Fold:
Amino acid sequence: MSDARLTPIDRLVKAFRKLPGVGEKTAQRFAYYLLAAEESVSFELGDAVSRLRKEVVLCDGCFNLTETSPCVVCRDETRTVTEICVVEEPSDLVSIESTGGFRGRYHVLGGRLSPLDGAGPDALRIKPLLERVERDQVQEVILAMNPNPEGEATALYLADQLKSHGVAVTRIGYGMPIGGNLEYTDAVTVRKSLENRRQFRS
Structure:
């Protein structure tokens, strides 16, 4: 059925189902909740979504999502520029920041290597990472890819690319569960993963 023939409720349910982890029943609950709630709730939600796309930009330094560029982390002069933690997505950066255990800088790749999905090296922000390593005389690059096959492939590729730059390359320890995601991991586990990072050998 085309969107034009859907009822307003079905159209909203279909939109909610596009969110990760939201199935048919949950999408229906969301839709009917908004219908039953005060009108201001729907307007607040719509306004928040609209402003999200208009007011959030990429940081020129680390490619995190931010309201102003450079972001808060890149503007913080108390953080060392000689350690860079490389993550796949902004949500992974947020998970590591929540631990309070890392005082270096970040680099958001914008994804991971996944040939089956058409995501090769050119789709990631690898060149800007290598440029930062040279420009800022970085001493350590921490690879914080998620511990799954795609994450491991991405870490191996980055380690190979960094070989000629004379920088220590480490990988977060496996306090992280295999197949897990930083975004959904508790702060203690993420902290231990950072503390137990090891030298990366490609």
Remarks:
- Helices lie at 8-16, 24-36, 39-55, 72-75, 90-97, 126-135, 149-162, 187-195.
- The chain is about 40% helix and 10% strand.
